[in-house]
Amino acid sequence: MVSEKINLVHITEVAIEKFKTMLLDAGDENLYLKLSVAIDGTQMHYNIDTVDTELSGDKIYNYKDLKVLINEDDEELLSGAVIDYIIDDEGENIIIDNPNLIQYDGSDDGGCCGRGCCFGN
Length: 121
Hints:
Layout: E1 10-11, H1 13-25, E2 32-40, E3 43-51, E4 58-63, E5 66-71, H2 75-78, E6 82-88, E7 91-97, H3 111-114, E8 117-120
Parallel strand pairs: 1-6, 2-5
Antiparallel strand pairs: 2-3, 4-5, 6-7, 7-8
């Protein structure tokens, strides 16, 4: 069952369309976008993958027919995050602005691990 839990993470319209295209290009209409977080000491790493099955603890979030899986263990760290997709002079990037991660990099300004982390194509 797909639940409407859009307020956990905000995904911009541009990012939703890019992710939908990515899933279509993968050639399987049953794929999910899986969003997860890993903490390695003071480093925060985001993972955005395509998967075809739910794992124990995964919850399905529906963003305009884009099915996103987030494991319940990652919900607190991702709550309130904003995911955007931009194209600029540096190329195409996924930008994640996450107010929950400011403390994880040990700096007062949030550092790359908290705000504005980029994932290039």
